[in-house]
Amino acid sequence: MKAIGLSTYGGPDVLREVELPVPEAGPGEVRIRVHAAAVNPTDVMMRTGGHAARMRDVPPPFLPGMDAAGVIEKLGPGVDDRLAVGQRVVALVLPTRPEGGAYAEQIVVPAASVVPAPAGSDHPEASTLLMNAATARLALDTLALPAGATVAVTGAYTVELAKADGLTVVADAAPHDRDLVRGFGADHLVDRGTDVAERIRALLPDGVPGLVDGSDQREEVVPAVADGGTLVELRGWQGPDEHGITVTPVFVASVATDTALLNTLRRQAEKGVLSLHVAKVLPASDAAEAHRLLEAGGLRGRVVLDFS
Known about the structure:
By secondary structure, this protein is an alpha/beta fold. It folds into 2 domains: 2-129 and 276-306, Quinone Oxidoreductase, Chain A, domain 1, CATH 3.90.180.10; 132-252, Rossmann fold (3-Layer(aba) Sandwich), CATH 3.40.50. Helices cover 23% and strands 28% of the residues. It has helices at 41-47, 123-127, 130-143, 158-164, 178-184, 196-203, 259-270, 287-296; strands at residues 2-5, 16-19, 29-39, 67-75, 88-92, 106-110, 114-116, 150-154, 168-173, 188-191, 208-213, 225-233, 246-249, 278-283, 302-306. Strands 3, 4, 5, 6, 7, 14 and 15 form a 7-stranded mixed beta sheet that branches.
């Protein structure tokens, strides 16, 4: 089967097309014929060696990708009738495992990590759902703010779930993205930039009780958080505690087999609570270009690799 992998860490050009054996589904697993794999920032982290410490015992080639959409090809022993051969599905994939990630024509994953694709979505749209939405859900659950409280968000994906939770949302946005982020439901917008914390404090002089740092601004956003508040980091930063502020990193791998959570996100996508945005679809062989586009920034949605 065709896959996209790397044997050495580096820039986008280390991504290569490779031929690998078709994987077999073991007990409690399913094999998916992948049609689309979304390209996420964590894929770039893997490509540049950000996950190397967790992959010392994983032989190359390393396959990135946490988001797959496709069709179930085979059920392993012990998989219940929740899933069926021929069913359109999405899967949250952990690329640090020996089997690798979602950048492959066929993948084997735990059945618990697989749910039906949102009704009405095509494969590229469906592939953008789980990793982003599950990360946002985990971040908001970590904050555990009561309905009516205010949360600040850098990076817009958390906005829709926060609004569904009944929170007041302050979001940052680049000038060309203001209408898009407002459409997600943000109550207040501030300009993106190194002074984002000052802009948030201008709106809320006492700071916000919780902030989700989706754009990896780290120290720059700490001053926006009220004394005793919580900053949730999505890229692993554990920052210094100041003024009683708790900095908590969250890792989506911790919910990769939480089928109930993944199914809830799928239903929210079907109801329009979560929107699915595709910026561009590229052939899988253009994975290096997909990574370059992501690193350049300014995308409205995900770049998706087509394995169909």
